[in-house]
Amino acid sequence: MNHSAEIVIREAAASDREAIARVLLEAYSEYAAVLPGPFWAEYRDSILGSVHGDAPISRIVAELDGQIVGSVLLFTSSEAAYGRPELGIHTPIIRLLAVSPAVRGRGVARLLIREAAGRSIALGAASLNLHTSDMMASAIRLYERLGFKRAYETDLKNGDTLVKGYRLELQAPPGLQSKKTSTA
Asked: pLDDT, tens digit, for every residue of 131-146?
């Protein structure tokens, strides 16, 4: 577990799924006003399906004063994350990063991404991927500040929306890097 002030990052328990769904819908509801009604309903259903489905390898949550205030889902591949093996992503993908609007600006998203990156390294992955759209401009700025670069080859279309791929190249901590042995 990682701590930052009173924010605790941990693996979610099965009993946390409703709280995760609540935070996701609270965080993503700002897009309901800019998306056509049927598209928002489909997006909302996709969010809930991911929370309650078995595809994520990990559900990471941020807790503040005993309440879940953020979450991110970690998947092993594009097939697990989106049902899209043709994207050819065989390294971890984060989806549905969400932070309650009441606690934004406190580094919660950064802590969740850092934890997902650490777990990806522990799985032996060389990179961590995600997808987002221009509608999520503040999230894109965060991803770029954290070192994510555009991965154009993983872009996809969702209706008329370009969903942009991003990738973070991961480095194992010094203790996990392979060491060269000397025979001299």
From this structure: 998 888 889 999 999 9
